[in-house]
């Protein structure tokens, strides 16, 4: 009887050990598959990130070259810190830029700027016309001072939108008034609208 009981227990232990081993192997395979899937998703997402932003840069470069401008930019709105009353600070930052050879980039300058300091510029963005504006014609403001400090003599802006909400804007800058005057404004507006629509589509691919 004892021998029989010992035999039963021994068989049970062997079955239990086998089951434990198989479970551990299966668990390891599942974990490996999950990690592999995450790495694949991360790779595809990173690859998509590079593709999207490379395409945006190409679009900006084409826009800059066809309009003979010094800078072509994508500037996007975002929330920053909060005021004492809890209201979010509305800010914008430069996220993409194509610059003419010999022209200094705005990459490190337009980062986390308060929208309230650039109302004259944002009002022109809201107009959604894409016309060429001359810095000298602006009223005295922080916007005018900033553009003058960057040697911007003329500029054009159009809003970027997502689900009918303005999320940022594209901007062309000319550091030569003569170059801006030689550009056909209707052609410039058409190019701005075309490229802005394409950039909007590319930005949507990030989601």
Describe this structure in words.
The protein is of the alpha+beta class. It has a single domain (60-204), classed as Beta-Lactamase, CATH 3.30.450.40. The protein is 53% helix and 23% strand. It contains 5 helices and 6 strands, in the order αβββαβαββαα. It has helices spanning 2-67, 119-127, 142-149, 177-182, 185-204; strands spanning 71-82, 88-99, 113-114, 133-134, 154-162, 165-174. Strands 3-2-1-6-5-4 form a 6-stranded antiparallel beta sheet. β5 and β6 (165-174) form a beta hairpin. α1 packs antiparallel against α5 (185-204). The mean pLDDT is 85.
Key terms:
globular; alpha+beta; 207 residues; Beta-Lactamase; six-stranded antiparallel sheet; 6 strands
Tell me briefly what this model is.
This protein has 207 residues and is an alpha+beta fold. The protein has five helices and six strands, in the order H-E-E-E-H-E-H-E-E-H-H. 53% of the residues lie in helices and 23% in strands.
